């Protein structure tokens, strides 16, 4: 039997890499687009690295030939110039989906929701963003709705996992990759919950949904529950259990971000995201559970331990 083919854009990133590896493990033939495949580490089991630029529609269309799924998990380098680059990149994937007939999958996030969505927004809750990236995310989702291509959006909380990139709060604030954990830099507010998503669980969810093509409407969107840290202290406690000792907790220096903005363009956008650490916003996965029966869910202690090992913060004792 010929393996089903999937094209993954952003396979060197956290979400894209996790989805690509999970697809390969499930028997899919996985093509991974990259501008310079020769620079990519070749330990990505079962991936066929294809030369191409995610901004070039012709490259994406060619790479997507006979694909059943296209995973659009690519972002501008260094997360810069989102307002200029994100939508043109998505247009290239839309063109490829239209040409190949593939379902286009977009990993989404909580940024599309503001206070008006309520504390437990479902997949169809009002989208009233409070950040620049939230507005761009909504524009991406709207473009998929109006494009006519079969689309799937899976929204999740803040990512963590063994190959989490530096753009994750977990690896950019809570811990320092490659260093033993002695201090945690906490951006949260005591007593306020926060939603996390373990990358292998996100990948498993996307792959399961992508394998149910006959059951999905032309445009489908689902929210994941992931790991809900009800009081903002469960993730730190899990880190301490994983390393086997108490960790010092320091507050994230939110007050310094305005001073850093002239020298660090992302400072303003990071400051905009503070509402997610000051107000409880827990996306509801009711629609996902109705579709799959349950949400893939790795126990928190297992997920945190695997994440710390993968980030080089903890030795694997076997």
UniProtKB/TrEMBL annotation:
InterPro entries in the record: Lipid_A_modif_metabolic_enz, NAD(P)-bd_dom, NAD(P)-bd_dom_sf
Domain spans labelled NAD(P)-binding: 10-159
Pfam entry (one): NAD_binding_10
Protein name, as recorded: Membrane protein
Biological source species: Methylobacterium variabile
Lineage: Bacteria, Pseudomonadati, Pseudomonadota, Alphaproteobacteria, Hyphomicrobiales
């Amino acid at each position: 039997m010929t393996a089903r083919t999937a094209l993954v854009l952003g396979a060197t990133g956290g979400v894209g890499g996790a989805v690509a590896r999970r697809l390969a493990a499930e028997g899919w033939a996985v093509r991974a687009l990259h501008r310079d495949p020769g620079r990519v580490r070749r330990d990505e089991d079962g991936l066929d690295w294809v030369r191409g630029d995610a901004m070039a529609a012709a490259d994406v269309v060619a790479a997507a030939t006979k694909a059943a799924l296209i995973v659009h998990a690519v972002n501008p380098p260094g997360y810069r110039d989102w307002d200029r680059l994100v939508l043109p990149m998505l247009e290239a994937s839309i063109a490829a989906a239209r040409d190949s007939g593939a379902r286009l999958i977009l990993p989404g996030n909580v940024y599309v929701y503001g206070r008006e969505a309520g504390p437990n927004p479902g997949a169809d809750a009002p989208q009233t963003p409070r950040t620049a990236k939230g507005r761009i995310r909504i524009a991406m989702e709207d473009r998929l709705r109006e494009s006519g291509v079969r689309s799937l959006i899976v929204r999740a909380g803040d990512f963590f996992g063994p190959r989490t990139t530096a753009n994750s709060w977990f690896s950019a604030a809570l811990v320092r990759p490659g260093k033993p954990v002695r201090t945690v830099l906490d951006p949260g507010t005591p007593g306020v919950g926060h939603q996390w998503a373990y990358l292998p669980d996100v990948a498993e969810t996307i792959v399961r949904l992508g394998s149910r093509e006959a059951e999905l409407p032309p445009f489908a969107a689902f929210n994941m529950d992931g790991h809900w840290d009800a009081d903002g202290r469960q993730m730190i406690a899990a880190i301490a259990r994983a390393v086997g000792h108490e960790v010092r907790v320091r507050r994230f220096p939110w007050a310094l971000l305005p001073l850093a903005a002239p020298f660090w363009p992302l400072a303003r956008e990071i400051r905009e995201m503070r509402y997610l650490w000051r107000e409880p916003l827990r996306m509801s996965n009711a629609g996902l559970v109705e579709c799959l029966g349950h949400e893939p869910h790795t126990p928190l202690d297992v997920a945190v331990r695997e994440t710390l090992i993968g980030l080089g913060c903890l030795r694997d004792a076997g």
